């Protein structure tokens, strides 16, 4: 039996028992490792990976012990490496070089209770056009890290990565994926040459391209990014729309400090910024031609990055987020210019946060939906989002 592997299994199992879901798994593990210095970096990496992998199979096989379930999750997600072979039952070893589908089938045959449909706990609540089976399966792998190459930097970025022998995959002329934990900041100029941005988030750019077509070429569009966080969508909007008068806001002052630093690196120097809780009306006469509302949400389209959510999330939160989103929408829309565009975005896959809010907007405001879509990233190992673009009714 591989002693290291077995020790990591036992340690991960003990942490999983202690984890109660009141904070993200990432913070829980960070705290544990800083209080327990006995683990070297190799141990920390393996134990962390095992904890995350345990949660990837969701609520399957709850009747098994944590260690048994963990081994099954590791077998499905990673397969068996040579030095782990002695830790698994003899009959599993013939599948050591099998692909993901074959490993899933083997486990389904051995444990008929294991079902892909049990990974994501609310399949009946999904937005339209999400391939349920591909979506369920996407939780079994850690999503990739995606970079968006900023306009004009396409050649230099690829050259730098090639010179440093960093493996990468070209998704399109602006988007590449690289292995998680690659130290890109020592090779590329973050925010100037590239931004770290998931593929689905990058694909919301297609909605900004539509907005761009409605304005004359040299027109400087007034844009308000209402829930800007550290400015991912704002930088995307700048790169696509080019000429903008940009205003950004968020409820969290600290995240806006990150935005300021990011904007500096991105060479965005002229913008208005303010802290605002948009669940309450804000007194302002200012009007914007484009309002981007990338609303706070369940984040269910990103749960492959936080797979513990599959086990700890409770359905009642969906409606709480829907109510918050409706308040935020209601406090933003009045600031739309008479010829204006409203872009609603979530990183959720729940119909209640997505299509149901499109209906809410159309029923309560003088806005017409031009385009709405679930932006799925599972085929490329990325997140999933939803976006809907509205225009004012004439
Ligand atoms: C999905 S994130 C936005 C991501 C960002 N647009 C980007 O592209 O990186 C949602 C943001 O909404 C902010 N938020 C949450 N509640 C809010 C409220 N009541 N008023 C304004 N912003 C809020 C959060 O602080 C968070 O930064």
From TrEMBL:
Keywords: Methyltransferase, RNA-binding, S-adenosyl-L-methionine, Transferase. InterPro entries: MeTrfase_RsmB-F_NOP2_cat, MeTrfase_RsmB-F_NOP2_dom, RCMT, SAM-dependent_MTases_sf. S-adenosyl-L-methionine binds at residues 250, 277, 294. GO terms for biological process: RNA methylation. This is Fmu (Sun) domain-containing protein. One of its GO terms (molecular function) is RNA binding. The active site is at 347 (nucleophile). Belongs to the class I-like SAM-binding methyltransferase superfamily. RsmB/NOP family. Residues 114-394 form the SAM-dependent MTase RsmB/NOP-type domain. It comes from the Bacteria.
């Amino acid at each position: 039996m591989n002693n290291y592997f077995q020790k990591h299994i036992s340690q991960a199992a003990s942490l999983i028992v202690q984890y109660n879901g009141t904070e993200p798994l990432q913070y829980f593990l960070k705290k544990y490792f800083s209080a327990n210095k006995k683990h070297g970096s190799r141990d920390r990496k393996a134990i962390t990976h095992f904890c995350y992998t345990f949660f990837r199979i969701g609520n399957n096989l709850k009747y098994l012990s944590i260690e048994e379930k963990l081994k099954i999750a590791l077998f499905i997600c990673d397969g068996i490496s040579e030095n782990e072979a002695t830790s698994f039952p003899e009959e599993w070893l013939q599948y050591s070089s099998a692909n993901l589908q074959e490993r899933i089938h083997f486990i389904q045959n051995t444990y008929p209770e294991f079902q892909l449909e049990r990974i994501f706990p609310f399949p009946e609540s999904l937005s339209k056009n999400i391939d349920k089976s591909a979506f369920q399966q996407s939780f079994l792998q850690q999503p990739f890290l995606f970079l968006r190459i900023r306009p004009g930097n396409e050649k230099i970025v690829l050259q730098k990565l090639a010179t440093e022998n960093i493996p990468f995959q070209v998704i399109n002329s602006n988007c590449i994926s690289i292995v998680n934990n690659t130290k890109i900041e020592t090779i590329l100029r973050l925010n100037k040459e590239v931004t770290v941005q998931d593929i689905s988030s990058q694909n919301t750019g297609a909605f900004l391209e539509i907005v761009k077509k409605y304005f004359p070429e040299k027109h400087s569009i007034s844009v308000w990014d209402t829930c800007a966080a550290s400015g991912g969508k704002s930088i995307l909007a700048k790169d696509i729309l080019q000429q903008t008068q940009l205003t950004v806001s968020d409820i969290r002052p600290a995240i806006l400090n990150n935005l300021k630093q990011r904007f500096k690196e991105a060479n965005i120097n002229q913008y208005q910024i303010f802290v605002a809780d948009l669940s309450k009306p804000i007194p302002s006469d200012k009007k914007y031609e484009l309002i981007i509302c990338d609303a706070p949400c369940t984040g269910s389209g990103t749960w492959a990055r936080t797979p513990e959510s599959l086990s700890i999330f409770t359905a009642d939160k969906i409606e709480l987020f829907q109510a918050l989103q409706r308040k935020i929408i209601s406090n933003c829309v009045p600031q739309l210019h008479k010829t204006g565009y409203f872009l609603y975005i979530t990183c959720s896959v729940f119909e209640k946060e997505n299509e149901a809010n499109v209906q809410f907007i159309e029923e309560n405001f003088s806005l017409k939906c031009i385009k709405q879509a679930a932006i799925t990233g599972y085929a490329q190992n990325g997140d999933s989002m939803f976006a809907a673009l509205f225009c004012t009714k004439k």
